[in-house]
Amino acid sequence: MSLKDPEIMMQLKMIELTDEEIRIAKYFQPIIREHSEEIVDSFYKSVLEVEKLKQLIQEHSTIERLKKTLELHLIEIFSGQFDAQFLEKRTQVAMIHFRIGLDPKWYLSAFQNLLNASLGVVLRRVEDREESMRISTVVTKLFNFEQQLVLDAYEKETLYQREIEYQKKENLVKQIIGTSTNLAELTLETSSSVKELIATSNEVNTKVQRSAEKTRDTQRIAAEGELRIAKLESSIESMDTSTSEMSDVVSRLNESATHIREVINIVNEIAGQTNLLALNSAIEAARAGEHGRGFAVVSSEVRKLSDQTKQSVEQIQKLVDQTSKYSSEVASAILSVQQLVKNGLAESQVTREAFTEIMDSMNMNIAEVGQVEQEIKELVYVIEEIGQATQKVAASSEALNDSAKSI
């Protein structure tokens, strides 16, 4: 033995495994090697009868591979060489058992079968009873020491993994406490922000409602404007009709003035002929002397009447000319008014179309404002739900924090 670990040496001393017994074990190594396949087959026959162990083998390795490994391991037990390498291999066996999840009870049960099979092979070569007892003791001590090494390494690894899990748990608890604390602080901030957001959204909702009311007022005003435009358009159309009638009246007045001129020309001709007739009558009356005196008086009166008629006709002519002038001015003014009326009618139609577009736009705007108003209300409702959920999260984080601290 080349072991220096005081604890290992104490274990060997406790089971009273001496150097002499180790040399005896080495003496039987060739027998173990010779019958290793038989021992291993017997071992795995009992192992495979346990379904759980069979599944572990199928998940992590193969029977043939494990048999070869176990044969080498068995031969090493009887090598008579206890050194650091020997201990390291036992530690590796323990690590493999731990990694695949083999419970210690199954290891002990299986190892007992391995011990029984090995003793059976060795004792077949020994006939003396006392010698058999001594050999059995040596082999049992060897397998006991093997179990001690493996189970000790297994336990140390288990404790190590538990320590790691405990440390992970401690770290997780600290992380949970830190996270829950941060979460609580964050939820408080979030709750405050949500309250501000609720207040802001309510204010926005109020403004949207006011905007909707103003939009509806504007729509009413626009509708009234559209009615007024319609009335104005109707009035302009009436003016257009009236000016057209006035234009017709002026046209007829011009026609009458033309007829009056024709009549004046006729009267002028008659007055001229009457004056000529009166002159001729006066001449004839002068020739008749005393007998034509009465006729001369009549001729003089006719001449005066002709002159008066001529003067009256001239005045009528002046009046007709002045009336024609006024009629022309009136006709020109009517044409201007008609043009203005037509322009006003065109402008009123454009304005009416503009008001129609404004009304359409206002209707669409009101619909959109109504939709926005509804969406704002829904948003306020959602924000309030978020606020309630935030409060629940805050309560849950505080409960989580308390639970984590109590672990």
TrEMBL record:
Domain Methyl-accepting transducer: 173-407
Alphabetical keyword list: Transducer
SUPFAM superfamilies from the UniProt entry: Globin-like, Methyl-accepting chemotaxis protein (MCP) signaling domain
Gene3D superfamilies per UniProt: Globins, Methyl-accepting chemotaxis protein
InterPro entries according to UniProt: Chemotax_Me-accpt_rcpt, Globin-like_sf, Globin-sensor_dom, Globin/Proto, MCPsignal_dom, Protoglobin_sensor_dom
CDD domains named among the record's database cross-references: globin_sensor
UniProt keyword annotation of Magnesium present: no
Sequence similarity: Belongs to the methyl-accepting chemotaxis (MCP) protein family.
Protein name: Globin-coupled sensor protein
